[in-house]
Amino acid sequence: MQTRPTFRLVTALAAGAALTLTACGNRDNGDNGTTGSDETPATAPAAGTEDSTDDADDAADAAAQTDDAEDTADDAAGTAAAGESDGEFPVTVDADNGEVTIEERPERIISLSPSTTESLFAIGAGDQVLAVDSFSTYPEEAPTTDLSGWDPNIEAIVGYEPDLVIIANDMNDIVASLEAVDIPILVSGAPADVDSGYDSLAGLGLATGHVDETAGVIAGMRAAMDDAYAEAEDAEGIRIYHELDDTFYAASSNSFIGSVYEQMGAVNIADEADTESTGYPQLTEEAIIEANPQLIVITDQVTYTAEDVANRPGWDQIDAVINDNIVVVDADIASRWGPRLPQLVELVAQALNQVNVPVGR
User: Fold this and answer.
1) Whole-angstrom Cα Rg for the chain
2) In 3-state terms, what secondary structure has residue 241?
3) Across residues 98-107, what is the average pLDDT?
4) What is the pLDDT of residue 354?
5) Prior bond of 5 cis (ω within 30°)
6) CA–CA separation, 121 vs 112, rounded Å?
7) 3-state class of 185 per DSSP?
8) What are phi and psi of 92, to 5 degrees?
9) 77 or 100, higher pLDDT
10) Which of 50, 151, 177, 180 stands 20 to 30 A from 232 (CA)?
11) Helix 211-231 vs helix 194-208: angle between axes, to the nearest 10 degrees?
12) pLDDT in tens, 36-66
């Protein structure tokens, strides 16, 4: 009997281990949510630190990087030893709907999740994608259809004769329906944090026969994220408000994007309102004004502009408005886990660095 490699989300690929921020979500026209981050950047050395101390710190950093490289190599060797390499099937993938065995390399994949669609094309599995949902608008070559991940039509999906279906949530009992007709289905929801996001991406690599390419994508993301975080050198303690719509739903630190801000050291004014850790609490205007955010973030999919936000009654006393620190971000990148995440981190890092903190505030 042939041994079936089993993919474990916690230890999947060497490149998937690391970066302690978080990610998650689904709340916009396809995705928009998240949950949680844990660590904030290390405190910068105190002013007046001598060169010798800097040299010692640099040496320590270099040693740490060497250790990381060795760990990555060891993990990669372990992955290969376990048989988790490109082209080996059957494989068993740990998904949100449990362990799913894929007997052969899938060639007719349906993705009903914008995040998954982006990831599949990024890891080199785009040629295997047969159809995607109506919200999967990136990349341009994605075969967008009128299929829905939020209200999936079982008959329409089966009509494509897929050999693998990937969806963010088990809507309309789609898992049981597809299992009944022997079509493998993976439920790959919004990751709980960035590490989990890397693990989920690695799982897609295993499921599609692109383990090595996926490892490279994850390694590239990690490096780009590190570079982007390094740009947020002055973000510590800055108060931030990420607005989702004009009813004042916001992203807290228990969300995908909120975890990015926490990793940078910013203070999320929505955290106090997120008593149930949903990641998306609703605030009041009074609470927002009182919290006095120094940076306000909105997306390019809302029906209003940064100028509209600045002109709201009473908001002229908010630091972010006074200092023209309202930034507009790409809604897709801000709401979806995927390879474009470093772009968002870089943009927000630049915005945080431009925050002008008034004296006495």
Assistant:
1) 22
2) strand
3) 97
4) 82
5) no
6) 14
7) strand
8) -120, 125
9) 100
10) 50
11) 160
12) 222 222 222 233 333 444 444 444 444 444 4
Domains belonging to the chain, first-starting first, are 91-219 (3.40.50.1980), 234-353 (3.40.50.1980)
Give the tokens for residue 311. Answer: 């002109």
pLDDT category of residue 331 using cuts at 50, 70 and 90: confident
Q: Are 361 and 319 in contact (CB under 8 A)?
A: yes
Report the C-alpha gap between 74 and 347 in whole angstroms.
34
Classified as helix, coil or strand, 114 is helix
User: Each residue of 77-86: pLDDT tens digit?
Assistant: 333 333 345 6
H or E segment at 327?
strand 326-329
Q: Are 131 and 143 in contact (CB under 8 A)?
A: yes
Q: CA 26 to CA 130: how far, in whole Å?
A: 24
Distances (CA, A) of 292 to 260, 264, 267, 302, 316: 20, 19, 11, 22, 10
Q: Which residues contact 212 (CB under 8 A, 6 or more apart)?
A: 85, 86, 205
CA distance 206 to 5: 9
